[in-house]
Write a structure and sequence with these properties.
The complex is a heterodimer of chains A (247) and B (322).
Chain A: H1 2-18, H2 20-45, E1 47-48, E2 51-52, H3 53-82, H4 85-90, H5 96-119, H6 122-125, H7 131-157, H8 165-178, H9 191-198, H10 201-214, H11 221-245
Antiparallel strand pairs in A: 1-2
Helix pairs in contact in A: 1-5, 2-3, 3-5, 3-7, 3-10, 5-7, 5-11, 7-10, 7-11, 10-11
Chain B: E1 2-13, E2 16-27, E3 31-35, H1 42-49, E4 57-62, E5 65-66, H2 71-77, E6 78-81, H3 93-103, H4 108-121, H5 137-149, E7 155-159, H6 167-184, E8 187-191, H7 195-198, E9 203-208, E10 211-216, H8 218-223, E11 228-234, H9 237-248, E12 253-255, E13 258-263, H10 266-276, E14 282-288, H11 292-300, H12 304-309, H13 311-321
The chains are: A mainly alpha (247), B alpha/beta (322).
Amino acid sequence: MLNAIYIIWLRELKKFIRDRSRLISSIAQPLIWLLLIGTGFGATFGKVGDLQYIQFMFPGILVMTLLFSSMFSAISIIWDREFGFLKEMLVAPIRRTSIAIGKAIGGASRSTIQGIIILVFSPLIGINITIQKFFLIVPLMFFIAFTISGIGIIIAARMESFEGFNLIVNFVIMPMFLLSGAIFPISNLPQWLSMIVSINPLSYGVDIMRWVMTGISERNPALDLMVLSLVCVLTTTISVYLFSKGK
Amino acid sequence: MSIIEIKNLTKKFGDKLAVDDISFEVKEGEIFGFLGPNGAGKTTTISILCTLLQPTNGIAKIAGYDVTKERDDVRNSIGIVFQDPSLDGDLTGEENLRFHGMAYKIPKQIREDRIKYLLDMVDLFDKKDERTKNYSGGMKRRLEIARGLLHHPKVLFLDEPTIGLDPQTRNRIWEHIIELQEKNGITIFLTTHYMEEAENCNRIAIIDHGKIIALDTPENLKKNLKGDLITLKTSDNQKANELIKTCFSINPYIKDDSIFIYAENGENFIPKLFRALRTFEITSVSVRKPTLNDVFIKLTGRAIREETMDGVGRMRERTRGR
């Protein structure tokens, strides 16, 4: 079981390191958001509570990096299916459970590495990351990314081709990001929007990440952690189940 | 000794019977050809044998292991080359093999030795550090054969191993296949559309509408057609056909614009035939030994080669096989 998870993970990382263009774009994208939206909105919003707007936004952008990277990584199962490699994995004497978990850990690892690269820019924004904080942020990133990977595998487990891929980007990934509290505070939203935000698991990830990085949060961080843990257990279980039962 | 045993195997997709109560055995060390028109149940059968699909009914055993109950033992006993490529294009040839070796838990030193040996055998050692997305179709197929052999399987499944490849590459792949059988005694179970290739098999099973309709050596299958095949074109095939039936009490058939007649000593039979058909204008006649393709047409009513043109049918079978 561990051997199988390890080789699936190893493959993900190898492909990650090899795919330069994706690596660069996945790092450039959050930086562009920070630079353009951060500066633009910052000029209008000024401050959010005690934080400069760009400081408020930074943890959100970090989580956005995890969201995109983990989702794409999990959805690469569709690519594996389309290009046949999934069959090679399915006829090998390894459990489908190991394939799903290996994929999720692999996706979470890639995302965490990208997150660490983004984290390097934090001093420029005026967020001081101490060593202690760093060793809190890294596992937190991995945890959030692993949870998102589970969601991605649930989606990919039943998709036969990548025709539905744009649908996922537009109707799952973008709403999850926009309604996560990453780019605007969630405290003073109208009721209906506030409801949607509270069922978005990513909003808890953004909140706790902001708390760890800046000490400011909009919810109780203990609640964030509880909700995230629950979602993580749920998505992992469902994704493993669906992937094992799938064709 | 039988390495593959299939008893009353049945697979239904909804109401549709894809494999209908088939039973046969494959002997250890033979090259076994599995032929049939598209949608006949070939890919479904292979998928069941490879543990990718659960049968609705019946038993299949490979090397003594049950394909539904002892999956991991079966998986360790078989190597598979799928009809469609199944390599990771972002990994190099060597890495694709290494992934496979790790998945099958081959000890590191043995794994690396075998990778070297197999890459050399399929003439890809020079290309081992190149990503497989840059490989040609033939190189990919050769690498997949090497990969299928890496864990020393008892049975190698080849689903259309040479489809879409040029004749030289096809010949080379066949050299590998025959060498494997002769040197290592490995059992090979293959499907093919090319009748010339089916001639290389020790035994052939022909499947149609989910049932095995013939199983024998290529020689015996051809012998069953009795004698020579005479192909005749006349001014009125229908009427000529009726006349031949009544005169000689044999059963010819019309396909396309020709009448096909099986007769012993064809050379002697033609003059008799001409005498009987003197009221017809005969535009062409030929006589030859029957080929496997003739066997196939006789049994299924279709030429196997027509199928290769039918892209839609191929897609359909692929979808079903999933």
